[in-house]
Write a structure and sequence with these properties.
alpha/beta, Rossmann fold, Dihydrodipicolinate Reductase, domain 2, six-stranded parallel beta sheet, 31% helix
Amino acid sequence: MAKTIRWGIIGIGKIAEKFATDLVNVPDTELHAVASTSSERAENFAKKFNVPHFYSSYEEIFNAPGLDVVYIATPHTAHASAAILCLNNKIPVLCEKPFAMNLKEVQQMVEAARANDTFLMEAMWTRFIPAIEKTLELIAEDRIGKVKTIQADFGFVAPHIPERRVLNPALGGGALLDIGIYPAYLALLILGYPIDVQAFTIAGKTGVDETTSFVFRYPQATAMLNATYATRTRTEALIYGEKGYIHLPERFHETKTLTLFETDNEPVTFSFNRETRGYNYEIEEVNNCVRHNKKESVKMPLSMSVKLISLLDDIRQKAGIFYEGIDG
């Protein structure tokens, strides 16, 4: 029988609720403790998900007996400090994406993980969903030939609530770090780090990037990507190869289907039914790593997170996206 992994959550906003809804249905997994800066919110969250331990400060979560791993779901600007707090207490960490605000913060997180010999992983849940696993398998099998072009977008209309995370520059708001990370990651996963990046942005009323479009150039390929809060886009991905292409339909980062189009064959659709939102796959990966005392995931290693934040930094530099008090 597998060891039950006892999870804690730091930061209990909307994403934490989605994550917790999946977590409580993963076998041999327990939501053991939650922490918030609001005692009322912590208590209400604990009641909703039947969590035995709840705290009104992040530091107190380490008082929970037998805590195995912590999921960090704070605003972006608090990711690094919360992760390092856990790592210095030798508690394994799954930290929501983006891993942190910039490369400097991510490097500090990685250094803390290695200094404390403790597991750390970025919560890039898209990497673990079956549709992405199948996409990588089809590419490896040369079903579409060498990948030449990727097109991917992510867009929705963000309600104009300036104090909320998505539009608040003090909380790391903006389309790129919030949703543009998904197209950027897909291109990085499939094509690697580009040799050139071009990016353009349109700022919204609060000063954060409302729309950011970016293009990656590779020796023999390109990626054309977009993220926006200004309109609802199809939020799909198309991966074009020399012999065909793969279509990941709306919303590609959590899709349950994909269609393979080969030059000389009829299209084939692969379906991956699930009753969860899809966070269970990354939860199971972390559970496996913790049970086997691994310090990082093979599928989402720290080296990938370093590359991803470096790429986001590059896009921000090219587009002129700047966070006061965070960027030097």
